[in-house]
Structures are given as structure tokens and as C-alpha cells.
Amino acid sequence: MKSFEYTITDPVGIHARPAGLLVKEIKSLAGSAVTISKGEKKVNALKLMALMQMGIKQGETVKIEVEGGDEEAVAKKIEAFFKANL
After folding, report:
1. Domain 2-85 has what CATH class?
2. What are the structural domain ranges in the chain?
3. Which of 24, 26, 73, 76 is the most buried if burial means most Cβ atoms within 10 Å?
4. The pTM is what?
């Protein structure tokens, strides 16, 4: 398993548009299971509604975990997505 933490910089946090883009990005990286956690809450990153219900706001830190095929490359792509969009 490969994991990293990221502090959200988007002023609105993880809302509908970036959450939808994130789900689309992860679907394009088939073969890996991606979870996002904040505190005690942990969700499958492909579940758009569950992701939005976490209520992740600007300044909060989330942990992203990648399991499965080519974890290193997938984690790097997701981290780049977070830096560019969140």
C-alpha cells in the first residue's frame, strides 16, 4: 500500500466539481483501490456522494491510500491531481 497526505487548498474544499473530476481520474487508473480518509471517516474514492458527504474543507488534511497494481505510479498521478485541482 502506498499513501500520502494532502492539505486542501481550494477555498471551497472538496465540492461537486473537483470531486467529480477526482472520481473520473481514479476510474482512468483502473486496477487500484483508492481510499480517502479524514479523521475517523474513510471512503472509497470512487463513491462521489460519499466523498462529498465527508465535508472536507480548505485547510483540512486528508490521507489518500492506494492499493493494487502499480501503486507508486497511481499515487503520483493522484497526488499531482490534488495539487492541480484541490
Report:
1. alpha beta
2. 2-85
3. 26
4. 0.83
C-alpha cell at 63: 490521507
For 19, half-sphere exposure in the C-beta direction (CA atoms, 13 angstrom radius) is: 21
Q: Return per-residue pLDDT of the chain as tens, 86 residues.
A: 899 999 999 898 888 888 899 899 888 887 789 999 998 999 999 999 998 889 899 999 999 999 987 888 888 998 999 999 88
Closest residue by Cα to residue 32 from 82, 76, 68: 68
Cell of 46: 470512487
Continuous segment of H or E residues that includes residue 83: helix 71-85
Q: Which residues are catalytic, by number?
A: 15
